[in-house]
Amino acid sequence: MAEEAPAIVLDKVNKWYGAMHVLRDVSMNVAQKERVVVCGPSGSGKSTMIRCINRLESHQEGRIIVDGTELTDDLRALDTIRREVGMVFQSFNLFPHLTILENCTLAPISVRKMPKAEAEELAMDFLRKVKIPEQAKKFPGQLSGGQQQRVAIARALCMKPKIMLFDEPTSALDPEMIKEVLDTMVSLAESGMTMVCVTHEMGFARMVADRVVFMDRGEIVESGTPASMFENPQTDRLKLFLSQILRGH
Amino acid sequence: MNNTAAATVDSAPIRERPPASVYGPVAWARTNLFNGILSSIVTLVFGAAILWALYGFIQWGVINAVWWVPATATGALDPTSCRAAHGVGACWAAIHDKWRFILFGRYPYEEQWRAGICIALFLALFYVSADRRFWNKSLAAIWTATLIVIGVLMWGGVFGMVYVPQDEWGGLPITLILSTFGLAFAFPLSVLVALGRRSTTLPAVKILCVTYVELIRGVPLVALLFMANVMLPLFLPDGVNFDKLIRAQVAIILFAAAYLAEVVRGGLAALPKGQAEAADALGLTYWQKTMKITLPQALRLVIPPLVNTFIGFFKDTSLVLTIGILDLLTSSKTAMADPVWQGVSTEIYILIAVIYAAFCYTMSSYSRSVERKLNRSHAR
Predict the structure, then answer these.
(1) Of A92, B218, B228, B252, which residue is least crowded by CB atoms under 10 Å?
(2) Does A106 contact B at CB distance below 8 Å?
(3) Do B297 and A97 touch (CB under 8 A)?
(4) What is the CATH code of the structural domain delimited by B95-378?
(5) A chain contacts of residue B297, beta-carbon cutoff 8 Å
(6) Annotated domain spans of chain B
(7) B269-284 exposure pattern, b = at least 16 Cβ within 10 A, e = fewer
(8) Who among B279, B283, B380 is closest to A159 (CB)?
(9) ipTM associated with this complex
(10) Could you report the per-residue pLDDT of A53-81, keeping only the tens digit for each?
């Protein structure tokens, strides 16, 4: 089998917020179709790292190469990368003044210049995949949190990205709604999407992840398969983290 | 809403009307006007004061008022009965004599029908723009066409109409022209300035916008009008001269745009950052993101302060009296000074107060209805 270029390459990435060093020499490769879960305590830089991948934050040192294109200040490279990288946010960030259908068709029509009818069909297709086609004409404010997050996933998928980034997608949801969103993400993973997911849901990591990366205080401390990470943590920091989040489970 | 604990039709509770002591006009009066000794006393005292003032006004304005005076041999109106009633009754007959000057200023008498049509066109323009059915590209065409027609009518010189130079324009058309053109141009300019101020990629634009806003806000509108009137001819080559009205118009546009820019910037800053981030993550360009995502939401947020500024500027147009342009207020004050009708200032002030209030209240209630409709469409 020929060696495919990795989907994402982070090479000694450093980032500072003012004087605060938030990413220290972060190096990580994500292969095509690989599912990576990033976990760690708050303030560890995991959200910052994932937001650097689509340049919602910019890094000061090191290189980030997404889908073969290097991330710099060049606007055209940025547009190319953002088209192929979809992102799902913790606070959903749906556009409240547009209907669900319009939320999903906005980007394909404006960015990929798809005709409206085709975009609407595509959007309905993905809304069916996330199991809420009947909500298409409603506004985001009329949906529950779990439904909104599933719409956010469908909206990102409508751009047919090669890579999907998830920034704590279930952290703002009520417990009874977490399952429906995780089910959507599992079926997405099974369809072969390259995924980088920042989450605290270790059950999801166990089920779906090819690799789990543990970050603490801006650096990658440990990484490995879910089984080896959860059953056989090597570093003290990971042991401490696991004891904190797996307490009572 | 789904009610999973479904009740059958048989067991639906009987709906009763609430008793009159809980809901209805009597209950309202009880809770708001008479809910205690002190409150009742205050209600009675204010009620008496209001009724007394109302009685006095009706005596002066209606019962003792002089509604009509006969014409003298020369055709002018005879003010004697009005002067006799001075202080006791209002002299509405003076309005009958002065309304043309109040409304049209020094515009030539025979041509005032053109100014009248312009006022009607402005009102029609506002009415059409308020109707959401017209909120598409044709609106820009309607505005351009209407404003060109108004310009042609006011100036004349073509189609057999007599040419009327701008010095002779006055009254309500001036107020409407200055405020409508003013706000129509100031608003898009203010949006650009607000966006420029928030620019992270073009520092030069940002500095320019900040300087512009701070300079304009540091100067009173009167001073700006003076400067526009006196200084602008110095900067232009010989022979090129803009009409005084255009100079005033430009000053008003620049002034309004600076204040509106800060209001719009407030709306943009109040928007959650996640909206712009989601738009960026989807790959939208800056202008796509601004026009489709951030601006619609930001403007929705600041409708109250925007309309506030519009209403304020509508009345600020009266400041052009300082450079000798006759707007509605100034022509009214000139009308009041007529020695034939002594002391009709109160009646004339009431008239233009009603005119200003009609416009401002309409703007106000329109903005409330827009807010209501927009909130309904994406209620959280």
Answers:
(1) B218
(2) yes
(3) yes
(4) 1.10.3720.10
(5) 95-97
(6) 95-378
(7) eebeeebbbbbbbbbb
(8) B283
(9) 0.91
(10) 989 999 999 999 998 888 888 888 888 89
